[in-house]
Amino acid sequence: MSKIILAADVGGTTCKLGLFDEKINQIHKWSIKTDTTDPTGYKLLEQIYQSFEEQLSAHDFDFTQVIGVGIGVPGPVDFESGIVDGAVNLYWKERVHVREMFQQFVDCPVYVDNDANVAALGEKHKGAGNEADDVVAITLGTGLGGGIISNGEIVHGHKGSGAEIGHFRIDQDQRFRCNCGKSGCVETVASATGVVNLVYFYYPKLTFKSSILELIKEHKVTAKDVFDAAKAGDQFCIFITEKVANYIAYVCSIISVTSNPKYIILGGGMSTAGPILIENIKTEYRNITFTPAQYETEIVQAQLGNDAGITGAAGLIYTYVIEKGGVK
Ligand SMILES: [Zn+2]
Questions:
Q1: How many angstroms does the Cα of residue 165 sit away from the middle of ligand 1?
Q2: How many A from CA of 166 to the centre of ligand 1?
């Protein structure tokens, strides 16, 4: 009888769900709308469970075949307990005991982790990480998130804040305020939001004409506009792109001397900007990184796109239940 892993990647608007086999091969994926009306999280988790139940039976499986349920959540997670300490995008203001709640529905292990960590685990197993034991994934989206896999394990740290690399203070001038309440975090200068921050900071100093000037004036400029204009040769946008690339390279460099990954995987919307961004990151990375720490370390683009989350959520069950026999 074949075994099944259930995976959920909970996002602010949709929950991506998946059925996987015991080797993390995707059998089926689908999504449901995220219910954000219940701040206790119960309603959302119940809907996820019901959806799993429907799809299991639609594929001629039942819960006795389920090895475990892996769940990725957009918020700080205490991995040991499965408690999520608030999640802004889900309107969870208080702590939500996701594991305990989900365990009311199922009779198998439930593992919960932060969405950036599970995305890293997904890329390690089925994406750009090529099953390497030391992999770092950086998600360059509206914010900047990260997951570090070291010696085959997700780095959680003492209270689950390991790999919160978006809040690494890099901008010593602290020009922009971060969502975390502090200022100067790398997220404020090297995410899609950060690109726009830099545009508005540098544009008053602009001494030549930029092709995105109208967009800037109308407050409509996006990171994509900046990278597209840079590709077309716009000097101002090239300048901004290089700044952003240098910040990202600096983060990669610090991570390299910390955990010495085989792959540094760049994902998220910004990672599709192409060579204009990634080649600049690689160049600066090589310039500034302690040489032995960059031997055979490759900076590569993520491969799984939106599937990284569910794949990594299934990967939690593979890593912590199948490989380790349920330890932790
Ligand atoms: Zn921050």
A1: 9
A2: 6
Neighbours of 289 (CB within 10 A): 19
* DSSP assigned state of 35: P
- Give the domains, in start order, of the chain with CATH numbers: 4-114+306-323 (3.30.420.40), 128-303 (3.30.420.40)
CA of 97 to the centre of ligand 1 (A): 24
Distances (CA, A) of 78 to 36, 95, 147: 21, 10, 14
Q: How far is the CA of 177 from the centre of ligand 1 (A)?
A: 8
Cα(95) to ligand 1 centroid in Å equals: 20
For ion ligand 1, residues whose CB falls within 5 Å: 167, 178, 180, 185
pLDDT number for residue 6: 98
Q: How far is the CA of 168 from the centre of ligand 1 (A)?
A: 7
Asked if 317 and 112 count as a contact pair (C-beta separation under 8 A), the reply is no
Over residues 16-22, the mean pLDDT reads 97
Side chain identity, residue 149: I
Q: Is the pLDDT of residue 326 over 60?
A: no
Region 183-191: what's the mean pLDDT? 97
| pLDDT for 328 | 42
Least confident of 46-55, 267-276, 307-316: 267-276
